[in-house]
Amino acid sequence: MSKVFIIGLPRTGTTSVSVALLDYGFKVAHIGLTKRAFEVADVVSDVPCFCDYPQLDKLFPDAKFVYIDRPLDKWVSSIQMLLTKMKPNLLEKTGTFHPILKRSFKQTFGDINADNLLDEARLKACYLRHQQGVFNYFAQRDDLLTITLSEPDSLTQLLRFIGVSENRINASLNHSFPVLNVGTHVASWGEHKHPNKVNTNLAGPEHRKFFDYKKLGLSH
Fold first, then answer.
1. Residue 14's closest CA among 28, 33, 35?
2. CA distance 161 to 179
3. Which Pfam families match (predicted)?
4. HSE-CB for 167 with a 13 A CA cutoff
5. Which pTM value belongs to this model?
6. β-pairing verdict for 144-147 and 43-45
7. Phi, psi dihedrals of residue 55, rounded to the nearest 5°
């Protein structure tokens, strides 16, 4: 099957989409930090997909992309909470997060140490810039689906887009996405147990190496 990349920003529902697809037989990585994770997974969401979609499009030319839209006011309050929690570990020199995760957030939200990092207008501008970048990149193409998780038919739209049969869709007991990571909770993916989950840092023949975009001529 074609790879599926979920390219909505953090706090738009990437975890909910990732968990929902596990039950349809897809191998899913919520965040992919190694080549092997991308090779093994059918679906990869969140970091670094939301900023590396042009590179992934070249690496996986048959892939499908899913953009998650969320009402801005709800997203802003949620991302403010997440950035507040994550900021110490996102700092370039002292932060403990993986370099790819740091890069993805810096590319999307700018200077993590900025005094106005949590400013509402600044974050809305980041969201809209990312959204417009996605829409411009995929203009006149049929391999991007835009969904809003709160809409009642959004899961069905997604399943059809990625090739799940109508019989399987109709037989499903769940016709909406699970509601996860509510409020200040951010660990739903780690808490969810499922055999189809793919390790974010999955090692392969090249150990935990990521794609070398420069060597491949795909630099940012």
1. 28
2. 21
3. Sulfotransfer_4
4. 0
5. 0.96
6. unpaired
7. -70, -40
